[in-house]
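Summary of Year 1 activities. Much of the first year was spent building the evaluation harness for sequence design. The harness presents a backbone, in tokenized form, and records the residue chosen at every position. We chose the following record to illustrate the format because it has been used consistently in internal testing since the harness was completed.
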């Protein structure tokens, strides 16, 4: 559903010399939503984000924000702001001066700059670090400062390039909850580049999966996970088997496969304990590998070891036909 603050890519292509990094991509990013751009290394995610930010020129096509063509505007005049992977804070400036930097460039008076910076630092829970230098902060704290610095410009769209990749796993999960909270509170769009499926599932209202410079599939997180349209999306999102059946190729979630006396014969190759589930990797007729996630309690009623023959079944209705 369109809103007044949508961001729209219309047949956008990015070339570096003869190499095509983004190939004729069109997409509507609905205003006020959290979108994750997901895909393997080199698929064109960062190029897409940098074109939206204005840090990279568009080779062909246009970028519209709130109905206005911003493709040729400088970054500061687009209504977007970008938070970089390495945070890019000025090392010699205090936290407050880093956050207020863009306001200084706009010629806003010192008192107003400080008041706005203080409010932004409160928003990201960094008020008490206002006078420190970046080197005196942890990675997670530097990231909050970088967020405040991006948000102070009042963007309609915040662009985040792998914002969590430099954090340890514990902090990453905390910060992602924080990002989601901020997006909800501010009501603006966040477009977040990641190559982490879990991150995208946890955060996104919409997931846009890119592959080979194109959008392979886009939709609500649950839909992309549960109904992958292509083999690439099924394998990249994980948690699925791709089955070659007489009627065609299908995806089915690994937790939809069960031990079933009436099912297909297979020989167990590996057994992996995963806490809530046990993952059985088995080989069926036609050299087909099938992974079954069996609930832990069910598995341990009759534990299975590699080399054993099992029978695996599923509901036909849970199969999703793959289109490529
Ligand atoms: N400045 C550049 N000059 C030439 N080629 C580039 C440039 N930037 C990116 N590319 C190429 O464009 C393609 C897409 O790169 P991009 O950085 O957009 O991918 P990505 O999906 O963000 O990858 P990653 O997850 O590794 O950051 C890659 O093949 C890359 O080598």
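For this record, the design step produced the sequence shown next.
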């Amino acid at each position: 559903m369109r809103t007044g603050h949508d961001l729209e890519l219309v047949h956008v292509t990015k070339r570096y010399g003869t190499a095509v990094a983004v190939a004729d991509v069109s997409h509507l990013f609905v205003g006020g939503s959290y979108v994750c751009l997901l895909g393997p290394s080199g698929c064109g995610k960062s190029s897409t984000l940098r074109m939206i930010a204005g840090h990279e020129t568009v080779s062909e096509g246009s970028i519209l924000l709130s109905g206005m063509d911003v493709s040729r505007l400088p970054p500061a005049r687009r209504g977007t702001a970008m938070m970089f992977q390495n945070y890019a804070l000025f090392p010699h400036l205090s936290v407050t001066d880093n956050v207020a930097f863009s306001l200084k460039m706009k010629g806003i008076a010192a008192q107003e700059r400080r008041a706005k910076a203080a409010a932004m630092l409160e928003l990201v829970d960094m008020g008490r670090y206002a006078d420190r230098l970046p080197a005196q902060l942890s990675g997670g704290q530097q990231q909050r400062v970088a967020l405040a610095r991006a948000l102070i410009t009042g963007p309609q769209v915040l662009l985040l390039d792998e914002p969590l990749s430099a954090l340890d796993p514990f902090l990453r999960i905390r910060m992602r909850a924080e990002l989601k909270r901020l997006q909800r509170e501010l009501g603006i769009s966040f477009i977040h580049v990641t190559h982490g499926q879990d991150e995208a599932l946890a955060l996104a209202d919409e997931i846009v999966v890119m592959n080979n410079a194109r959008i392979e599939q886009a939709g609500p997180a649950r839909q992309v996970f549960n109904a992958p349209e292509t083999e690439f999306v099924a394998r990249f999102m994980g948690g699925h088997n791709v089955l070659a059946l007489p009627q065609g190729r299908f995806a089915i979630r690994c937790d939809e496969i069960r031990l079933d006396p009436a099912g297909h014969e297979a020989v167990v190759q590996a057994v992996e304990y995963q806490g809530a589930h046990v993952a059985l990797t088995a080989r069926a007729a036609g050299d087909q590998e099938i992974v079954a996630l069996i609930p832990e309690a069910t598995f341990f009623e009759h534990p299975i070891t590699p080399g054993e023959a099992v029978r695996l079944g599923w509901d036909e209705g849970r199969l999703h036909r793959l289109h490529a």
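The chain has two domains: 7-226, 239-321. Quantitative recovery figures across the full test set are reported in Table 2.
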